[in-house]
Amino acid sequence: MTEHLTEGGLHEALVAARNVETDSGKPDGTSDAQPKARVEHREDGKAVAQRGLKRAQEALRVLEEYLRGPAHDTSRALAKVRFELYEAEQWLVQGSAAARILRQARLYVLIAEDQCARGVEATARAVLKGGATVLQMREKALDGHALLERARMLGGLCGEYGALFVVNDRADVALAAGAGCVHLGQKDLPVGAVRRMGGAGLLIGRSTHSEAQARAAVQEDGADYIAVGSMYATETKKGYELKGPALAKAVMDLKLEVPVFAIGGISKDRIGELRAVGVKGIAVSSAVVTAPDPERAARELVEALEA
Questions:
Q1: Could you tell me if 264 and 245 are in contact, meaning their C-beta atoms sit under 8 angstroms apart?
Q2: Is residue 117 part of a domain?
Q3: Phi, psi of 29 (to 5 degrees)
Q4: Same domain for 124 and 151?
Q5: Pick from 239, 261, 241: which is nearest to 251 by CA?
Q6: Which of 68, 203, 270, 284 qualifies as a FRET site for 234, CA 20 to 30 Å off?
Q7: Above pLDDT 70, what percent of the chain?
Q8: Do residues 53 and 190 both lie within one domain?
Q9: Rounded to 5 degrees, what angle do the CA atoms 279, 287, 124 make?
Q10: 166: how many CB neighbours lie within 10 A of its CB?
Q11: Are the beta carbons of 182 and 174 closer than 8 angstroms?
């Protein structure tokens, strides 16, 4: 019989044939019982969210196609929303893992070739083995090609150790290398501009040097994390005004809903006073990468942070 029905007619026939009242999946209103297979089936929140996004994407596509002729502008608006959902799904699948690493990070290490007595690759591997879970490439002298090759190498190492790889300043290099994150200074591109380039899949950090900058970076710009400093005197950032633990305390008291890393001249013997004002994560460079044993130096910092 069904071979004589059109596609639309077949669909209508199937809908009409469904017995809603006796459907085994229908709640009866008197019992919390559900079919056994559904009770036993459990999904994590990520899987449920992804399935919901898929359904929303398909629903929007149907509406777009239906309205393409009679309401072209509305169809285009729906297409824009659909692509925003694609970005949301991309973040859910890819970016959420990076965000989870970032939220749990305690030791964030900045690495530059001119500070690594053992070479960049050996030093990077050592600090990752020592427990650093965020590694930032901070190179100012390399040209674009060399910078990209370095980023790919360091990104590969971070992948081996389950760490987050960050590119300093250069959003283009971060995207080309497939990095999970880019870090921006106050004089770099605005967070919003980089977000439009990288979409939801690229995490963005921001350097801040005052309570007002910290608040603006998170609440106005939408940064995914901030670095706050300089805490103490540092050779890496000469000339920066020293803010010390007082600034760290002021920023932690804001209770911003993103990770906050104290930065600048931090050594193992200073972690206690930073922890006392609420600091949970630190960003360091010379304290680890110039050490005779970078792996041990990193491990000691992690242990002090978790003590």
A1: no
A2: yes
A3: 85, -10
A4: yes
A5: 261
A6: 203
A7: 82
A8: no
A9: 100
A10: 30
A11: yes
Q: Which of 66, 85, 104 is the last residue of a domain?
A: 104
Gap between the Cα atoms of 163 and 179, Å rounded:
11
Count: domains in the chain = 2
Alpha carbons 226 and 294: distance in angstroms, whole number: 25
Q: Are 181 and 164 in contact (CB under 8 A)?
A: yes
Burial of 70 (C-beta count, 10 Å sphere; 0-12/13-18/19+): exposed
Between helices 144-161 and 120-129, what is the axis angle to 10°?
A: 30
Rounded Cα distance between 282 and 284, Å, is 6
pLDDT tens string 185-206: 999 999 999 999 988 789 999 9
Q: Global pTM? A: 0.71
Question: Can you tell me the distance from the alpha carbon of 179 to that of 175, in angstroms, rounded to the nearest whole number?
Answer: 6
Phi-psi region of 42 (alpha: psi -120 to 50; beta: other; left: phi over 0): beta
List, for residues 148-197, the tens digit of each pLDDT value. 999 999 999 999 999 999 999 999 999 999 999 999 999 999 999 999 99
Backbone angles phi, psi at 108, to 5 degrees: -120, 120
10 Å CB burial of residue 1 (0-12, 13-18, 19+) is: exposed
> Which positions are annotated as active-site residues?
138, 207, 237
Q: For 292, left (φ over 0), alpha (ψ -120 to 50), or beta? A: alpha
Residue 298 to residues 158, 199, 203, 228, Cα–Cα distance (Å): 15, 32, 24, 20
